[in-house]
Amino acid sequence: MTLRTYVISRILLTIPMIFILLTMVFLVIRVLPGDPVLLHFEKQENPAAMEEMRHRLGLDRPLWVQYFDYVAGLFRGDLGESMQDYSSVTQQILSAFPATLELAIFSMIIAVSIGIFLGVEASKGYGKTRDNVIRVFGIVTYAIPVFFLGMVFQMVFGLGLHWLPVGLRLPPRMDLPSGLNVGSLHFSTGLYTIDGLLEGNVYKFVEALRYLALPSLTLGLVLSGVFIRLTRSNMFETLRLDYVTAARARGLSETTVTYGYALRNAFLPVLTMMGLQFATLLGGAILTETTFSWPGLGRYIVDRINFRDYTAIQGAVVFFGIFVSVVSLVVDLLYAYLDPRIRL
Amino acid sequence: MVSQPLLSVNGLTVEYWARRGKVRAVEDVSFSIDKSETLGVVGESGCGKSTLGLSLMRLVPYPGRIVKGKILLKGRDVLGFSASEMRNLRGKDISYVFQDPMTSLNPVKKIGAHFVELIRAHEPRVSEKDAVVRTRKLLRDVGIQSERIGDYPHQLSGGMRQRVMIALAIALNPSLVIADEPTTALDVIVQAKILDLLNALRDTYGMALVLITHDLSIVLERSDRIIVMYAGHMVEYARSEDIYRNPQHPYTQGLLKAIPNVELDEQTLNAIAGSPPDLLNLPKGCRFWPRCYCAKEKCREEEPRLTCTGPDHYVRCGKYEEGE
Amino acid sequence: MDEPKVKKSMLSSLIPGLSSLSQRGLAGWLVVLGFIMVASIVVVTAISPWVVPYNPSQINVGKPLLSPNSQFLFGTNDLGQDVFSRVLSGGGIMLEVSILSVIICLLIGVPLGLFSSYAGGVVDRFFCLIMDSIYAFPGLVLAIAIAAMLGRGVTNMALSIAVVYVPSYFRVIRSQVLSIKEMPYVEAANAAGAKGRTVLSRYIFPNVVPSIVVVATVNFADAILTAAGLTFIGLGVSVDIPDWGWDLTNGRRLLSSGAWWVIAYPGLMIILLALGFTLMGEGLSEMANPRLRE
Amino acid sequence: MKDTKAIGRMTIVGIVIVIIIIAGVAGYYFTMPTTKLKETLVMGTTDSVESCLDPARAYDYFGWEIIQSLGCGLVEYKAGATGSVDDIVPSLAASWNVSDDGLVWTFNLKQGVKYEDGTEFNATHVKYTFDRGIGIDDEDGAFVGIGYGGIINNVTVTSTYVAKFYLKIPFAAFLSLLACQASYIVDPAYAPMTSVVVYAEGNARGSHPMGLGPYKLANWTRTAGKDYEMRLEANANYWNASGGYPKTKKMILKFYADSTGLALAIQAQEIDIAFRQLGATDINTMKTNTNLKVWEGTGAFIQYLVLQEKYAPFNNTIIRQAVGAAINRTTIVDTVFLGQAQKLYSMIPIGMFGHTDAFLTLGDPNYTKTRELLADLGYNETNKLSFKLWYETSGHYPSSPQQAQVLKSSLEASGVIAVTLDYADWPSFRTHRQNEDMDAYILGWYPDYIDPDDYIQPFVDSSGGSWIHHNYNNSEMDKLIAWARGNTTAAARSSLYSQIQNLMVEDCPMIPTYQGSAYAVTTLKIKGVYLDITQSWRHWLLYAEE
Questions:
Q1: Is the pLDDT reported for residue A145 higher than 90?
Q2: A312 in contact with chain D, both atoms CB, cutoff 8 A
Q3: Which of B70, B238, C293, D530 is buried deepest, with most CB atoms within 10 A?
């Protein structure tokens, strides 16, 4: 099948999934017990006020109407207004997202590079000590609660050795990076590392990295196990394939054989796994953000749960869902592009 | 007269160390090849002929290893080579054509890339451009339009891929090419073509050829000498016409009988009864006796030695041991 | 005719595996090791009421925040409770939640998987779509949302975790069934006109069991970690029951005062438990489908 | 030449890399900020503005803290106040007087006071402020919460600089009410009459209606509905600018998710000031830290145990007293707060006039009394009085789970009481309170205005205390409260309050447990920290000393 048809079908597949997801979240939030409006008020002595709010949030309408409003709103990119301070949930989420994105990207980079490196190392000898050690390492990292690892890092590298900061995204005294400013036009990504560079301020960039180090290392390490395992097994499979032996028989160097032949083919499954693991990663991000007081979406959800801010929780969860689906879509398309057998 | 052979193998023994014990896939094999001559290696699957082929390039897959023997290429002991020396040797002095062309090319690399990579790995000073030029010529030599240089393996037919493999094998015109069942994965018409191509190239490039196959008929007319292997042993080693006219080992005779003979209108095709032994628990004595029509008490007791029964004719069978 | 043979080959991947572990190399040892870890933790938690040196919920058994010493092996927490006693008896919640959630998953995922894949066609496609969309979703996020809506308590935690992991059961079962459906003896049975239910229960289900065991084992670890996560963001259980999850959460406030022992020990226990199950799962799965065995 | 081509590529790559590295290192040192500005202080907190900075709605500690720096009231408490009326000093009002019936208050305003944008302040703005606050009648807001509508009848402007307040009831605590941040004057130019001013991204000035305060809001960034960064800059038009206020020109406020983050930051000296809410253990560790100064102050925050009188067991006064006698306040203060709090035996905080240790008569604890009281009702070691004690888990009050555990153990120490703990996040907790389905629950109270009335009327007055839903009402109590409110002489009021407190002990509708102390931690060079009973955090008095 051609790339075009593949892309189209893949996108078509994504749409119903997102819809199911939306519906699921809606049901979870609306159908499960608890009256959001009641929960909002300190004193519930003024039924008029509660009615007014119920109306304002459209909760006085029948469920199916609410559902359609909600879906329609989503298409307008409107996730409703926070029940705690009536401000736009969309705006709140977008303001929190860059922090999460930055954390996610760096964690993923760390996880994948650790995973691939160790996976390849392990694959250099099945059942040898090195292999087993790496394997066990992978299994152990998988079994560590991410927030526990985070706290340990905070204690060791933050409190103990004073190497790295353990909270926030930049030193308190430092102004937030402004991003790119050319004359009147202003462009910033909200990713402090990138904005720092755009601003041409290397110091900020470095600081941003320092503050990013522990959180992303924590999350990346916990996630690396999956990639180690996957790379390892794929490497073993590809390393036994004829074309690898053939390459050796042509006298190509081990590096070329391992990376150019074995890994290049073992990498595609790893790529798909990246797509899948992104979901896990965002889950872990919630806990990591809470541990490192990282001002991202994860902490947003946790805060809102404490406020019982239904619209916000719903919005954030949906946003996560859509984001993940989009990422996995992109990854799959990338896969299709990278794998010549699908491309064409 | 003592002219040094291109490759001479002496008492080569290869073992696989599986969890359940050691397996001798190749045991005490000795032979030699001269420049631009063809050696056929024949035997049922699992007789160790592929292992033999690979071991010549020290590519025996884990957990196998060469435990005994000597491999002399132009007088230099290959087993003594360092890793880098081996790399230089592989593909440049000896090259290998694998059984299944479908899986022998890197699916994510273009055809051309394979060549360029190979050439520049061995001749780093060659520029990309020149490498490409050479590649086009090589492809033409093996009968593929050079436009295919930009294709991916999966875009080529099996036969074409095998041609590519061959082209790769001869790219640095090595003195020896080992072809391991180069045609079994292909359909009959293509088979002949590929084999002829190999022969043609052998003549033009003047290289020696080791042709490994399970099909005696293929090697009979195409090779100068033939090794017949059974259960890791070299049971007979002789010039092909000797093998054809006077096969001495019962197994060889069996193989010959199994070839459909066109001249005879009266067909008596009788395959050898039974199946090769499990290398993990070999029968005591001669490894072939359970299937041998003329097995004697002695065969069950002691393992026969390789005996010379004529000019360049060696057999491993009790019948021909002196004292008979 | 060759039904018994196939059946055996599937099951043998498991039962003899357990019997003759040592020959299974690393895989075998993984299972043994994991089993020992889990078993010992379960036992400790079970007998803890009789062996704890102090009542784990009793405050001020010692001064607050004593570092580990001869009297309090693991030190004391901010309320002067004995960390050691709490570590011994704190596994209850984790185990309850994980066991419960795995049971729920089995009860929902397995039948659904069997049915859907055996029925095939539209039904199958429908279920797959739903399961995939749950599966693709950030598990913890979903669990948190559901748990937050359901409110506190072991059952609710287990439920919210189960929802997230049912798909992984579903998928495994399904892929298994699809392959087994093609097995000659199943087709023979179908040809012989056996009823769908019979085929499912007598021919297919027994062969799915090994992979179910594997999934469940691995899932235990996930369940435990998720439960810990839920507790960490305050969706756990009431504080008068000692619980590692809560101790970790609580210990976080004490981090800045350097009281490492308050979190270290409960943290390690959670790791041990999760690790135990992961090791078992790893070993079992390698036995069930020996891809890389020589 | 083939080679040169190959080599060429390599060298180019190499050169590029080298250049990047050099540029990077150079850039790093070039852009490294030079020594930090003296006139800027960085303060860290775990607080965050809950809804907005508009007095018409803001009803949270931090919202008020900022409002106080951006705005001004007619009167204010002088730094170091103890809560007595004499501590209330003129701010925007130069002087004032009250009619004998206590129903009419007249304020003469300072003249020539300007808003930060230079417009003149006058009496109409006073009227505007209160009409607006009462008019908007925001259910979440302080005007409703405190019940301005029930106190103020209307405000009139008699001349440019004279405003008159007509009250519905004689209200002794009126000055303290005006001193609280909800009564701060708003700038009509920025405060629409009928709607609340909320956070506007990228528009700090438009995000609040104040403008008479020592500071201007230079920048306010919220992410994820929480404060992310705030910058205060001196307001040149502040009426007391001539007096050298604010002492520090710039204030940067940094927001931490939790006490741990804040503690780590101040320990690393990344910030100059850490205020609210550091954990008790953190305070202790920092007391031993020679690079930090720990400031301690009286707190006006109290916590107490509410007993649901709607149904058994606590519909029985004896049982309530029995429980009241079984509270071990020492363990709460020492174990949960490591001594950084005070045992509280009255709803009126220690250090405020009218306070008596009324509940001490029940004992602290007096388990024999508990046993006796319960024995008559047939409770004993075998048949224990058992009930559910609820706590909240949203961090709305400091270390609620710990308190709950301590309370449980102290109650059970009596041997005749069995407590099971249950919890809910704050909103659900509130709803449970409304539904009146919690046997006993922990609540806390930050004062609105600093007066005994604010610690009595909202709790045990049948109308004022209805929000607690403890179903306690006692006409006798209501009468006493009304008198205490109306009376203007401090002496008479304190005697009334002591009667009220004794009556509370008899009825035991709620049991005070402790009074929090306020703590701030700063680096050694920071001066001008005042932690008095008003709970006000006065940014404009803070300064760093060389």
A1: yes
A2: yes
A3: B238
Nearest partner of D107 among D121, D122, D118, D97, judged by Cα: D97
Mean pLDDT, residues C228-234: 90
3-state secondary structure string across chain B: CCCCCCEEEEEEEEEEEECCEEEEEEEEEEEEECCCCEEEEECCCCCCHHHHHHHHCCCCCCCEEEEEEEEEECCEEHHHCCHHHHHHHECCCEEEECCCHHHCCCCCCCHHHHHHHHHHHHCCCCCHHHHHHHHHHHHHHCCCCHHHHHCCHHHCCHHHHHHHHHHHHHCCCCCEEEEECCCCCCCHHHHHHHHHHHHHHHHHHCCEEEEEECCHHHHHHHCCEEEEEECCEEEEEEEHHHHHHCCCCHHHHHHHHHCCCCCCCCCCCCCCCCCCCCCCCCCCCCCCHHHCCCCCHHHHHCCCCEEEEECCEEEECHHHCCCC
Q: What is the distance of C-alpha B191 from the center of its chain?
A: 16
d(CA C164, CA C186): 32
Window 81-100 of B, Cβ < 8 Å to A: 86-92, 95-96, 98-100
| Residue ranges in chain D whose pLDDT is less than 50 | 1-6, 35
Say if strands B233-239 and B225-230 run parallel, antiparallel, or are unpaired: antiparallel
- In this structure, the strands spanning D417-424 and D385-392 are parallel
Nearest-Cα distance to chain B for C278, in Å, is 26
Q: Which residues of chain B have pLDDT under 70?
A: 1-3, 19-20, 261-271, 322-324
DSSP A111-160: HHHHHHHHHHHHHTSTTSHHHHHHHHHHHHHHHS-HHHHHHHHIIIIIII
Alpha carbons B288 and B284: distance in angstroms, whole number: 10
Task: Please tell me the distance from the alpha carbon of residue B46 to that of residue B233, in angstroms, as a whole number.
Answer: 11
Write down the pLDDT at residue D536: 87
Q: Which pair of structure tokens corresponds to residue D1?
A: 């030449």
Q: How far is Cα D165 from Cα D102, in angstroms, rounded to an integer?
A: 10
Chains A and B form CB pairs within 8 A to the count of 77
Which of C57, C79, C254 is nearest residue D335 as measured by Cβ atoms? C79
Residue A43's pLDDT is 72
**Contact at CB, C64 and D331, closer than 8 angstroms:** no
Give C2's pLDDT tier (boundaries 50, 70, 90). Answer: very low
Q: Which one of A103, A124, A139 would you mutate to disrupt binding with C, by most C Cβ within 10 Å of its Cβ? A: A139
Instruction: Identify the CA nearest to C254 among candidates C92, C76, C85.
Output: C76
**Rounded to two decimals, what is the model's pTM?**
0.86
- Chain B residues touching residue C25 (CB < 8 angstroms): 19
Whether residue A152 lies within 8 A of chain D, CB to CB, comes out as no
Angle between helix axes C244-254 and C92-119 (nearest 10 degrees) is 120
User: B7 and B176 in contact (C-beta within 8 Å)?
Assistant: yes
What is the nearest CA distance from B118 to chain D, expressed in angstroms? Answer: 17
* B225-247 exposure pattern, b = at least 16 Cβ within 10 A, e = fewer: bbbbbbbbbbbbbbbbebbbeeb
* ipTM of the complex as predicted: 0.84
What percent of chain C has a predicted confidence (pLDDT) above 90? 40
Query: What is d(CA C158, CA C98) in angstroms, rounded to the nearest whole number?
Result: 7
For residues D276 and D45, is the Cβ–Cβ distance under 8 A? yes
Is the pLDDT reported for residue A162 higher than 90?
no
* Other CB atoms within 10 Å distance of the CB of residue D546: 4
Residue located via tokens 């078993």: C39
Burial environment of residue D1 by CB neighbours within 10 A (0 to 12, 13 to 18, 19 or more): exposed
| D430 contacts D393 by C-beta, under 8 angstroms | no
- Check: CB of residue D248 under 8 Å from CB of residue D41: yes
Q: For residue A59, give every residue at least 6 positions away whose Cβ sits within 8 Å of its Cβ, in sequence order, or none.
A: A36, A37, A66
